[in-house]
Batch of 3 targets.
Target 1
Amino acid sequence: MSAQTIADLQQEFMAHVLDDTSALPEGWTGRHAQGLAIYRNAYRARLVDALRGTYERTAKWVGEDAFRRAAAHHLITCPPCSWTLDDAGNGFADTLELLFADDPEVAELAWLEAAMHRCFVAADAQPVDGPAFAEATGRYNENDWARLRFKFVPGMEVRRVDHDIVALWRLLGDGIGEAGKCASGAGQYCAVWRDGFKPVFMLTDTHEGEALCMMLGGQTFGEVCAHLVGVTGEGEGVAQAGAILANWLRNGLIAGLA
Amino acid sequence: MSAIEPFSGYGLGLRRDHYRDFEAGRVPVDFVEVISENFMVDGGNPLRILEHVRADLPVAMHGVSMSIGSAHGLDRDYLDALNRLVRRIEPLWVSDHLCWTRTSAHNSHDLLPMPYTHQALDLVCDNIDHAQNTLSRPMLFENPSSYLTFPEDEMTEWEFISAMAMRTGCYLLLDVNNIYVSAHNHGFSAETYLAGLPMDRVRQIHLAGHTDGEIKIDTHDQPVCDEVWQLYAKTRDMTGPVAVMIERDDAIPPLPELLAELDAAREFDGACPAMAGA
C-alpha cells in the first residue's frame, strides 16, 4: 500500500464517518460495518455534545430534540476541519439563525453563548483603569484625542440585539421550565468581554453600541465623536462621548491606547 | 534526542469537575495528566489553574489531536500551539495516540484506526520524527482501542508498535483497558500482545473502564473492571517504574471514588513481585 493509498483509505474512511449513506469499501464485511458504525456514532455524539456544551441556553430555548437535530444538520453541512473542538461551533449560530428564522431570539442567544465561550479562553490582559488613562492622556491636545484609538481587551465582541437578551439569559440559566417570548429591546447592542477570568456581557444603548463597533473596527475616538455629534448635536454628542468612554474604563473594556 | 527517565507514581487526570480540589491542593497524587488541547488556548482560567497545579505537581501532557497516522502529515498550527504549551508547562512528557483523526479536509475528533502495513509504519515514523524534532523531545504514544481491522494489515498491532518505538526512539503509554478491549474485539491474546512489546519503552500506564457488548467500546465512563485489573497485574510484572493513572472522561465520579481506584492500583503493585521494594 503506497502513502497515496493510505491517503485514499483515510479519505474513504472519513467519508463513511461523516456520511452513513455511502457504500462500504470493496472487501469489507458486516463486521467492518459494525465497527464503522461505532466510529460514526462516537464522532456524532462527541460533536453534538460539544455544541450542546457551548450552546446550553440555546438548547433549552429551542428544546433538546430540536437542538440535536440542528446540531446534526450543522455537522452535515459544516463538518469540522480544525484540530480544536472549540472551532466545531464556528458558524453554528448562523446555522441556527437559518433553521429558526421564525424565532429571532435564537440567533441572538446563540451568538451570545458563542461569544462568551470564545472569550473564556481569550488572551489575558490588564485593563486600563481611570487613573492610568488620565495619566496617559494628561498631555493630549485636540489632535491627539481625535487620533486616539483603543486596544480593547482580547475576546471582546459586540453585536446589535433586538430582544431582551439579559432577561432571556437569566431565565434560561435558572433552568425554569417553558420560557415565554421575551420583551423587545430593539436597537440595543450587546458587548461581551472578560472581567478577570469571568466572561460577562452588558447591553448598551444604540449610541454606545455604535461607538463600540466603530472603535473595535479600528476607527478613531475623533470619528466616534463626530458620529455622535452628527446624530445628537454638538453639545450632547461630546458629552455622550465622554460618558461612554468613562463607562468603558469603569467596566474594564480598554486594554491600551494606540 | 534525549531520553525520558522513568517516573514512578500514581496520578489522575485534571478534569473540570475537580478543578477546585486540585487548586486547593487537596488531591493526594504524584502527578496529573492533562488533555493538551484543553489548554492550547490563549489565556483564561483553565491555563491559570494548570499553572497553579504545575507549581506543585509534575504534569503529563496527553493529546488527542496530533493525528500521528495522518497521510497528510502533521498540522503545523497544531504543533506550534502544542510546542507553546510544552514550553510553558515543562511537562514530564508529551503523549498522543497511535491513530489518525483528520484528512486534509476534515477532522473527526475521534481516534480512528491505522492499517498495520509497512507503508503505514513508514508514514507514522516520519510523522513521529517530525513531532519529536519540533518539540525537541521524545514522545509517548498510546496503543489504541479499535473496533475494526483492515484487510490490508501486514503485521499485528504489537509488531507495528514495537517497530515504531525502535525506529523513532519514542516511548510508550500502555493503556491496559485498550489492550483488553481490542483483544476481545479482534480475537487476539492480550498476553501475547504484552509479550510482544518492548516493555523498557513504557513510561506510563492508563487504566480505564469500557462498555461491554459484542464489540467492547472504550468509553472511559465506568470503573476499571476485574479483567482489566488482572491484565494490569500481569503488565506490572513486566514493566519497570512507571506512572500509573486512572483515566475517566465521562460520568466523572466524585474524587474519592477515583482515589479509591488509584489506591487499588497501588495495592496491585504492592503485590507485584517485580515491584516489591521498588
Note: Strands of chain A lie at 150-152, 157-163, 184-195, 198-204, 254-257.
Target 2
Amino acid sequence: MKHFKLISYTLFAFIFIFSFTHCTKKEDKNIIKIGEYGSLTGSEATFGTSTHNGIMLAMDAFNNQGGLNGKKLKVITVDDQGKPEEAASAVTKLITSDKVVALLGEVASSRSLAGAPIAQRYKIPMVTPSSTNPKVTQVGDYIFRTCFIDPFQGQVMANFATRTLKAKKVAVLRDVKSDYSVGLAEFFTKTFEGNGGKVVADLSYTAGDIDFKAQLTAIRSKNVDTIFVPGYYTEVGLIARQAKELGVKVPLLGGDGWDSERLTEIAGTALDNSFFSNHYTSESQDPRVLEFVEKYKKVYGSVPDGLAAMGYDAALVLIDALKRAPNQTPKEIRDALAETKNFQAVTGVISFNNNRDAEKAAVVLEVKNKQFKFVETVNP
Amino acid sequence: MEEFVQHLINGISLGSIYGLVAIGYTMVYGILKLINFAHGDVYMMSTFFGFYFARWLGFAYAPSVIGALIVLFLAMAACALLGFTIERFAYRPLRKMPRLNLLITAIGVSLLLENGGQILFGADPKFFPELIARAELLHIGNISISNFQVIVIVVSLSFMALLQYIIFHTKTGKAMQAVSFHHENASLMGIDIDRIISFTFVLGSALAAAAGILVGLAYPRIDPLMGVLFGLKAFVAAVLGGIGSVPGAIVGALIMGLSEEMVVGYFSSTYRDALAFFLLIIILLVKPTGLFGKTTSEKV
C-alpha cells in the first residue's frame, strides 16, 4: 500500500513536470497570445459569450487561412463573472502570467474601466469591442474602442424621443452602480432638455435588484410620455414586466445594453413597442453583414446579436494591426492600431479619432413580438 | 394619495414574502437559540427546485393554477427534506457543543449551498418560468393590483395562519413550545426533542420554499446568490419583531417591506438596504428584545 502511494505520487510529479516542459516548448515560437476578458457568467452572461463567439469566429478563420506568416493567434479567455474587481485581476493575470501582447474586452464600461488602467500601466494595447462610456479610452493611449460613445448614443435616443415619439415629459431610471448607465442617462438628459423636453423624474436602482415597483409607481404618477432605462438586459426585462403589471403603458427607451435574446425572455411581451439604440442590425442588407450573419449561423446556429458583431469587428481590427506590426510587440501593435483608417468592418467603417474612439453610425431598433426590428440609422 | 396606496400594496406584498422567510429564522432561534444562516440559501434552493420541477413536468410552457400548485408543493417537500438533512447531519452532531461551533457550522452550510449552487446550476441568472399568466385584477383610478400581488399576499397569509394553528392547537405545536422553553424539562415530560427539532426545520424550510416560489413568480430572476441579501433582510425582520416570536417576525417583515418601498418611492433607491439596517439599530437601541420579544431573566 505504501509503495503504491509512493509510485502514484512520483507518477503525478512526472506528469506534472512533463506537461509543463511540453507547454513551454510548444508555445514561444509560432504563437501570438492575445488575452480576452469578458462576462461569460453572471448577470450579463450573454454579453460575454456573444462577444467571445464573435472574436473566435474571426480568429479561427484567420488561423485557418494560415495565420500571420505561419504564426497562429491564440486567444486566452478569462471569465470575470461580470464583476469589476474580477476584471482587474483577469487583466493582471493575462498580462503578467500569460504574457499576452494585446487585450480584447470588456463589454461593460465599469469592467473596462477596471481593466484599462492595468493594461495602460503595463503598456499592453487593449481594444474594447463595445464599452461606450467616454471615460474608458481617456485612461490612456493604449486603450482603443471599436464602437461609438455614449454622448452620441444618448443624443440619438433623445432626438428619437423628441422627433419620432413627440415626447415632452420623460422619466429616467438609471443603474447607479454602472458607469455606462449613469453616463448614458446624463447625455440623454442633456440633449433631451436641449430639445425643449423635460425630465420630470430621475430615479435609480442598483444592479441585482429585483423589485422596481416603488420607482415605477413614482414614475407612473408623473404621467410621462416615455421612460428612458439605460440599463442592462436582466434588470430592464424585470422593469418592463413590472411596469406592465402596474399598468404603465408608455414605451420604454434604452441603449445597447438591451441587446440580448434574454431581454425578451424575461420581459415577455411587456417590451413591445419599446425602442433602443444599437451598433448594428442583423436585418441589414449590407453584403458584409449578410456574409457575417451566414458564417456565424453556420458555426453557432443562431443569429448574431450586436455584441457578437462588435466582438468580431474588434478582433478584425486587432488582426489588421498585427499584420502591420513587424515584430508584434505591444508598442508596435499600439502604433499600428492608432493608424487604423477606413477599416471596413461589419458594423461600419472604423477609423480611430484622436481619442482612440471609432466614429460610427447607430441604429434604432424596435422590440416587436419578442424580435428586434430595424427602425432607422443615425449617422454621427 | 393614489401613489401612496399603490406603494402600500407593493410594500405589503414584498413584506409578506420576507415574512415567510423570517418565520424560519425565528422558529429555529426560538427552539435552538441558533441563527440558522443557511436559511436564506434554503430559500434560494427552493427557487431552483421549482425551476427544474416546472421544466421536467412541462408546466413551464403551459401556465395553469394546478401546475403552479404542484410545483409549489413539490418545492416545499424538497426543501423540507433539505432542511431535515441539514439539521440531521450538520447541526445535530454539534448540539451539545458550545453554541459558537453551531453558528460557524451554519455559516459553513450556507457557503456550501451558495457555492455548490453555482457549480450545479451555473452562476448566471435563470429566468423562472411563468407558471401563472399575469393579469391585472383591479384597477381603481390609478391604483392597480395584479393577480401576483394578491396571490403572494393570500398564500403567505394562509401559510402563516396554518403555522399559528400548528403551534397553538396541535400536540406537536405544544411540544415545540415546551422545547423552546427548556430542552431537558421538555424531554422529562416525554417529548422526543430530536423529533421536534427536526420538525421545526422541516416546517421552516417548507415556508422558505413557499417564499421562494412566490418570489420566482413575481420577480422571475433567480441565481445561486439571491438568498444572501434576501436572507439577511428576513433575518433583520425577525430581529426587528423580536427573534423567537412568530407574530413578531410577520410584523417585522411587513415593516421592512413597507419601509423599503416608501424609501425607494419617495427618496432614493440608494438607501433601500441602508434603511433596513438603520431601523434595526434604532429598534435595538430602544427595545433590545425587538418589538414582540420577551425579556428573559437569567436564572442562577
Note: The mean pLDDT of chain A is 89.
Target 3
Amino acid sequence: MDERIVMVDSGTGLRLTEEQLDERSAVATVQLRRRGVRAGDTVLICLPVGPDLLVSTNAVIAAGGVVWPLPVDLDAATLRDRIQESDARVMISNVRRALEAAEESRVRIIMSVADLSAAHSYPTSR
Amino acid sequence: MPTSPRHNLPAEPNRFVGRERDLDDLHGLFGETRVVTLCGVGGIGKTRLALRVAAGLVPAYPDGVWLVELARFGRPELVEQEIARVLGVREEASRPLLDTVTARLRDQRCLLVLDNCEHLVDRCAEVVAALVAACPSLRVLATSREPLRIASELIWRVPPLDLPDTGPPHAAEAEAAPYQPPGLAPDPASYPPPGLRPDLPPDLAADLGSDLPSYAPSRTASPGVAMSDVESVQLFMDRAAAAGTRLGPESLGDVVRLCRALDGLPLALELAAARTSLLSPGQIADRIDDRFSLLTTGGRTAPVRQRTLLAAVEWSYDLLSAKEQVLLRRLSVFAGDFDLDLAEQVCAERPIAGGEIVDLLGALVDKSLVLCDESRRRYWLLETIKRYAVERLDQAGEREVLRERHLNVLCELQERHFTTEMVEPATPWARRLEALTASRDLVDDQRVALDWAVESGNVGLGLRLCRTSTGLLPIRGNLTEIVGWVERLLSLDMTGVSADEIAHAKAYLAYGLEARDELSRSLEAAEQSLAGMDRDNVFPRCVMHSLMVIVLLRMGRSDEALHHAEEGLALATASGDTWNQAAGLLGLSAVALTRGRLREAQRHGEEALARAREHGHRWLMARAAAQLGAVAEARGDLVTAQAQYEMAVPWLRELGSDLDLARCLARIGRVAAMLHEFGAARRRLADSLALGRATGQRQGVARCLVGLSVLAEYEGDLEGAVLAAAAAAGLRESIGQHSATIRIEELLGRARTKLGEGRTTALWSRGRAMSPDDAARHVLQGERLSHKTPVTAEPVRHSLLTAREREIAGLLTRGLSNRGIAEELVISPATVARHIANIMEKLGYTSRAQIAVWAAEHAEHPKART
C-alpha cells in the first residue's frame, strides 16, 4: 500500500497521505458535480493553506472546473471585487469574511469544507 | 381511480426571461438534495424561479408538485394547515395534523413548493425537517428571504438577472461609459419578439452577433453577447412591449444604463418597464439615479440590492396619482387575493369613492403594482409590494381604521352569506351554493380579520365573526381551528360583551369539540350555550339542540337526546325554519333507530328528507338520505338501503365533502357486497379507500377494510375476510378506537368451522401485521394467498461503465493511488480523478472504497460480459 505523505498541516501537524488525498478529492468532486459544477465553470476557493485547500483544488480540476483562488488575508473590499469579477456560481469557503463578501454577489451556492465530504450527503431514496 | 392534475401551479402571467443555466442546475439538484431553499431579497424573483423550476419537475414526480403559498398567513400553525389543505388532507380527531400529513406523504414521490417562508421561518423549518425525516421520497423547494437552517437544506442564493457587461471595476474608464456609441448598437432584429426565437446559448448567440465589433468588454463567461440578449435587457424589453411600448434600437443605450442602475432586479425592472408609455428609458434612468443619490445619504446599513429595490418601488409609488396611492396602501389589508367587490367595500372611504375603484385598480394593474388573473376577477399584490404598502398605510395613520373596517366588512359579508346559505327561507339551492362558495373564498381574510379582533381586543366583533361562517367549521374538515379562535377570544377582556354573545360563540366551541371527540367538554359548552343564549336567537338554539342530540346519543343517553330533539323540532316548526326542522327530525329518527323502533325511525327520516329538500342544502339532504339508508339496512331491506345511500353521492360530490362522501361510498360498497353485486362493491370500496387515503383518514381506511372483509366473505374468500378484518382491527387499535367485536367474533366463528382453529389464528395474526394497503389490495385485486409474487431484484448496474472505467475500478481493488493508476495506464492523475468521479456518479457511490468493493464483487465473471 502506498503510504506517501503529501502534506503536513502546519497548524495541527496532521498528515495527509496520498491515499487520503485521492479519496477525499474524489468524494469532493462528486459533491461539486451534484451542485451543478460543470466543465469550464469557475469555482472560488477561499481556504487557508492546508489539506482542505489541496483537496478542493484537486476536486475542482477533476470536475473540469477552473480554480479561482482567494487568499484568506485579502481585505473585505478586495474580496468583494474579486468575487464579483470571477462570475463564479460556486464558492468553497469557511472563512467568515469571504462569506460576507459573497453576500451580494452572483455566487449561488457556498460550500463549506464539510460539504465536500460524503458524510454530509443526505439520505435519499431514488 | 380518477386522474386529477398532478400539480396546482398557476399559469405563468407573462414570459419567463433568462436563467436557463440556473433552471438546469436547480432541476439537477433535486436528484440528490432533499430541500433546496431559494434565498434572496424581495423582488429578486425567487417565487417566479421556484414556479418555473417546479413546472419543469412535474414529469419527475408521479405523486405531484404542490405549491403552498404562505405569504397570506400570519400564524405558524397555519403552515401545516395550508399544506394539508393543498394536499386535500383533513385533520383527524385526537391526532396532530402534521402527523396525518406526514403519514399521507410517507410513500409519495412528490415535490412541495413552499413559497414565502420568511415570516414563518421557524415553523417552516420544523415542519420541513419533520416531513423530510419521515418521507424518504419527498423533496421540498422553498423560497425565503432567510434560509430555513435545517440539516438537509441546500441554500441556493438567487442572483439578479445578468447585466450588460461592465468589465472589471478597475478596467478602462471608457468601457464603463453608459452610452453605446451609435455605431455599436446591434441591429433591431437582434431583439427577438417573445417566443419567435428560441433562446440561444451564449456562444452561438455571440457567433450570430459577429457583425458586432469585438472590442466590447469581454471578461465575463459570455464575451460578445449582444446587449439586447442580456437577461435584464430582455426582461425590460419584454415587459415594455407588453405595456404597449415599442422601443427602437436607439433606446438600447438608455435601457442598458437603466438595467445597471436597477442592478438587474426583476421587480424593479418590471416596475420601470410599466412606465415606458409615459417616460422614455432615459428619463426613467435619470430619475432613478437621482433617487439613489438621495437614498445613499440615508441609511447605508441596508444591503445594496434591498436599497435599490426600495428605491424602485418608492419611485413607482411616487409617480402614482394621490388616489392611486391611497388605494394601493389600503389594498395591503387583504390577506391574499381579493375581488373588486371586496376592494370597494373595504377601501372606499374618503378621498376615494366606491365607483372610482375599478378604474384606479386598473391603473395600478397597468403599472405592475397590482397583479390580476386573465379575466380580471381576482387581484393580488406581490409580497414585496404588499410590505411596502403596509408601511405606507401605517405612515398615513390609516392602519387601524382600515383593519377595523376590514373586520366589519368581513363580519357583514360572512353573516350575509351564512344567512343565505342556512337560514333564509325559500331560497333556491343555486343561491345557497353561491353564498357558500363566496364565504369559503373569504376564509383567509376572515382569519386576518380575526387576528385583528384579537390584537385590538375587539372581542364582540371577533366572536361575531366566529359564528358567521361554515368555512372554519368541522364541516370543512377543520377540527381545531374554530375551537382555537373562540378560546383565544374568550380569554381576552370581556368587558362590554353580552352574555348572549358569549353563549352564542360557545355554540361553535361545542360544535368543534364534538368533532374532536371531546364529548363531555362539548356537552358542557352546549349546555352553557343554551343556558346563556337569548330566547329569540332561535336558529342557533335549534342548532345547539341538534348538537346535543348527537353528543348524547354518542354517549348512550338516548332519553335526554330525545328531549332535545323534540324541543329543537318544536322551536324550528314554530319559526318556520326548515333547516332545523330537518335536523330535529333526523335527531328523532336517530333516537328511534337506537331504540329499535324502525317504523318510527323511517317516518321521521322521510319527513326529514322532505324538509331538507324544501331547504335545498345538499349536505342536509345527504344526511337525511344516509339516515334512511341506515334505517333500511336495520330492517334488512338492502336494496332500499343501497338506493338511499346512492342518492346522497351526487349531492356530496357537488359539495366536495370528501369525508362524508368516503363514508357513504363505504356503506354502498358493503351493502352491494351483501347483495352479491361484487363489481359495484369493489368499485365503491376502492373509491372510498382512495378518498380515505388522500384525506389521511385512518378511520376511513379502517371502515373500508371492514367493508372489504364483508365483500371477501360474500365472495367465498373466508381467508381474505379474516385478513381484512384483522387489518381493520389493528388499524383501529392504533387510533385508539374500538372495533365492532360482535361481527368479528361471528366471522372468526365461521372461519374456525371452515378453516380450522390453527389456520384462523394464523390468518388473524398475519392480517394484524399487514399494512392496511396490502390487506386492501389483497381483497380488491382478488389475490389468493398461495400466489406470492417474488420480490423483483434490483437491476444490475455494471453495464453503465465504460471499458476504461471498469479497468480503473479494477485497479482500485488493488489499493492503487490515483498516481499509481495513472502510471499503470499511462494517463495523467487528473484524468484518473475525473474517471473516478464519473464512476461514483454512475454507481451512486460516495467513496473510492465503495467502488473497490463493488469492483471486487463483480470481478469474478468479468469475461462473461463484453
Note: Residues 167-223, 786-797, 862-866 of chain B have pLDDT under 50 and may be disordered.
